[in-house]
Amino acid sequence: MISFDSVSKRYPGNREALSRVTFSVDNGEMIFITGHSGAGKSTLLKLIPAIERPTSGSVVVQGQNISAMKASALPYLRRSIGVVFQDQKLLHDRNVYENVMLPLAFSDHAPKEAARRARAALDKVGLLDRELSHPIQLSGGEQQRLAIARAVVNRPSILIADEPTANLDDDSARIVMEIFLSFHQVGVTILLASHDQAMMRRYGGRVFALAGGKLTERPAEAAA
Amino acid sequence: MRSWLRHHRMAFNSAARKLAAQKSAAFASVLAIGIAISLPLAGYILLEPLRGLLGRVALEPQLTVFMKQSAKRDDADALGRTLRGDVRIGSARLIAKEAALKELASVEGMADVVSVLAINPLPDAYVVRARDTAPESMERLASELQALPGVERVHADSLWARRLASIAAIGRVALMILSTLLGFGLIAVTFNTIRLQILTLRDEIEVSKLLGATDGYIRRPYYYLGVLQGAIGGAIALIIVLTGTYIMNLEVGVLADSYGSSFRLPFPPLADAVSVIVYAGLLGWLGAHLSVSRHLRDIEPS
């Protein structure tokens, strides 16, 4: 489903974020990516929906080589990948329902079907009763759940999240992780970047550690 | 197809909402566009009567040979034969004095004057078209025709019409330059409005791209915004010009009536009015296209 082959990423100034990273992820897997701040976790995740392009090597997602993909084809790839950003990127001038409707606006769903999907996604993350609230009126945990609802409303086969539980209290973090787990249980491939070693032990899955742009795989038990 | 139409409807609604949300800024923009378009449109209204006049007069060099008042029809026929036999003359058309008087009576305000005349003061005349229209040749021909029996006077009456046509042509060129400049002005206003919109909605555009919106989906509302702004500006221009023409006609009417004329400045015909709105909308689209092409490529998700 996802395969990185000797992928390097250099930013201007010759700073190397990733160095010859190679790994692959099968359908329905749950992957944790850990590492210190600046280790390259966000860069790695951004390569999957082609928000960033590799400097060298190849990234293949759902059989498509991202490195060689035309810009006009990217929107269709991105619709099949749900992304929960570190800063959530919610639209604060729109209410909860309108935020979740955004990805459905440019898909081909009929209005009734789009509304049904949006409410189902909000129901899934427990925000159906807050659909008329604005993001600013939500707690940090609720905002994160809203970001997840928006990421999954198009029913993606891949869900990636960058530090989804950072800045959340334990209860909110647990609720957010339970939501990811429920998507994993129905076959969605999940990649999560996180610092939280205890959480990785609790939820299992493969763990990739990034340090100095190099990637190594460790069993979850050894992640501590 | 239904999905495509739905996306266009959504884009149009989004553009209308954006325009409505700007309130005073949007009003200022469409008013500026309206005033800009109204200037060449007003010029068109003022030049239109001149165009009608020029359409009725001959602009090719020609001579009018007036016969003596005392000349009989036989003299006129004899002169006609002489003129037609001259190889330098392409055609010679007789305007009989009776026909000339009738034509004069048909001119606005002249019917009353003609009706009180005891006799017809007009002479028979020939309108002569020369084969060689060079000024020197025309001058030589005129002086020779002047010497023919029964001829009172020869008049090169195309000169004033040519001058009028030249003035009208200058007016048209000036109007074209003004229209072009103000057309660029409209494009610039739209370009800037769309640029500000894009900057204001930068976050929304970035998030939409991240979530899989195509460039077409993102661009569409801005195209509609440009078209709407241009078309509304065109409609405002029409309102300005129609109102201005109505007010002007109140005074033009008083002046024209004093000459016994029913002349009034013309209102633009419906087809021209619709064209103004359509062209303004197209220029708005062009401004939006330039702005969107220039500014959207700068916004990439990060």
Structural class of chain A: alpha/beta
End-to-end Cα distance of chain B: 33 Å
Distance between the termini of chain A: 28 Å
Major sheet attributes of chain A: 6 strands, mixed
Strand order of the largest sheet of chain B: 2-3-1-4
Averaging pLDDT over every residue of chain B, what do you get? 85
So, the CATH homologous superfamily of the largest domain in chain A?
P-loop containing nucleotide triphosphate hydrolases
The spatial strand order of the largest sheet of chain A comes to: 6-7-8-3-9-10
Q: What is the CA-based Rg of chain A, rounded?
A: 17 Å
CATH second-level architecture of the largest domain in chain A: 3-Layer(aba) Sandwich
The helix content of chain A, as a percent range, equals 25-40%
What fraction strand of chain B? 5-15%
User: What is the overall silhouette of chain A?
Assistant: globular
Radius of gyration of chain B: 30 Å
**So how many helices of chain B?**
10
